[in-house]
Amino acid sequence: MDVNRWYSLVQMDDLERVMDLLSLKEQHARTLLIHYRWDVDKVFAVFVDKGEEWLFKEAGVMMEEHNDLSLGHSSSEDVRCDICMEDIPAYGTATMDCGHCFCNKCEHFITCFFSLPQSRILSKDLIAKLSIDISWTEHFIVKINEGQSRRIRCMAHKCNTICDEGKIRNLVCTRNPDLAKKFDRFLLESYIDDNKRVKWCPSVPQCGNAIRVENDKYCEVECACGMQFCFSCSSEAHSPCSCLMWKLWMGKCQKESETVNWITAHTKSCPKCHKAVEKNGGCNLVRCVCGQRFCWLCGAATGAEGHICARYTKDKEKNLECARVYLWRFMHYHSCYKVHTASLEVEVHLKEKLKMKISELETGEPASQDLSWVEKGIYTLFRSRRILSYSYPFAYYMFGHDLFQNEMTKEKREIKQNLFEDQQQQIEAYVEKLSMVLEEPFKVYAKDEFAETRMKVICLSKVVDNLCRALYEYIENDLLGPLQQAIHIIAPYKSTGEEKASKLA
Known about the structure:
By secondary structure, this protein is mostly helical. Helix content is 52%, strand content 8%. It has helices at residues 3-22, 26-35, 40-59, 69-72, 107-114, 124-130, 136-145, 165-175, 177-193, 243-266, 322-362, 372-398, 410-438, 447-480, and strands at 78-80, 87-89, 93-95, 101-103, 198-200, 210-212, 220-222, 228-230, 267-269, 276-278, 285-287, 293-295, 301-302, 499-500, 502-503. The strands form six sheets. A three-stranded antiparallel sheet has the order 5-6-15, with helices on one face. Strands 8-7-14 form a three-stranded mixed sheet, with no helix packed on it. The protein has a three-stranded antiparallel sheet with strand order 11-12-13, with no helix packed on it. Helix 1 crosses helix 2 and helix 12 runs parallel beside helix 14. The termini are close together.
């Protein structure tokens, strides 16, 4: 089916609802819906709250009947253009719903203008340019080229009426048929570009699909191409992070991840001033710029003679400088985030192996055995692993000072952080158990051992699902719920995962 034809059919449901309720023509219904970003409920709400007159006026819809002079007069009869004030044949004008009548192509104005004395000091090119905005056809061409196709207003002074799309199409088509097609395409695509319930899939390379959700925009959806993304911000699915948290985290990772990697690999903290020290020689007895000598292996302070240590011990100094504390804090959360992200990437291969196992088992004996538990297990593993990965950026901002410094007291923050981390650790423990069981070679197990593995996967999948749900409830009700800032909204948890969005293209 032709794409434009297909988009027209998709839009008709919304258009017909508005046309039926308000007894409108299609062009007026489209003008209303474009103004209210294709939100039919918003149109009806404004109609009920403020009335029909206010609704139409705000959207630029003129319902008072005005005869088109070009249709109501004979071809030989003259009418007056409201701009050039010349009497011209009716067929050379067009009248919009507001009643304003202008030339389709104002040749009379150009002739009249050239006859005036001041025209001698102006070039013909400039005068021709001045005539662009005083004829319907040129007015429409300019607006379409400027990308204003969806709401082209009447060119009369202080008139907010939206021009009749049929007259726009006809006038532009006589001059530039390709531009008329562009105008039609812009009108059709407004259903996707301006509609808060519809978005293009952000996959790279683009799949070309547009998808629609029926209710809340704060949700995570899956396109037919397999791309899972946040419908609110069009970035990858990132709950339990809010959109703002995820945006800040990605920006911070781009700026600081390489710095963190380099500092971790090449420096140690001075035990006296806590500055990062780089070793530039082979000796493991190093000296900081502050004069303090310390052992590169264990980080302990030493004298000029140094010392011998049996093993490396990580520095646990508590009195680090403020900037140093922030750095190490980011490194902790970034490291945990990357660990689970890396595990997720590795478990993609596990998913492929399990698909092969399922295929082989289904063709074996007994061929009718139920293997849905394997698919459920790997799906739960992927979903919970991703939640774990994104829970660390969430914790970084939730319990830090970047966003919510004045929202919680220090004592309350510590209590809530401990409760959050307890749930986080429980999920981690059971996710790792589930991953280990799914990696077992159950394909070659005996009947009893196979049944035992099946029960383990089913039980672990259920436990992990319940723990993830409980974590989301805690985040929504106890962490984000009491905040004064209502901008941090996360997609709700669903056991079935991302909503399979309806495909529009």
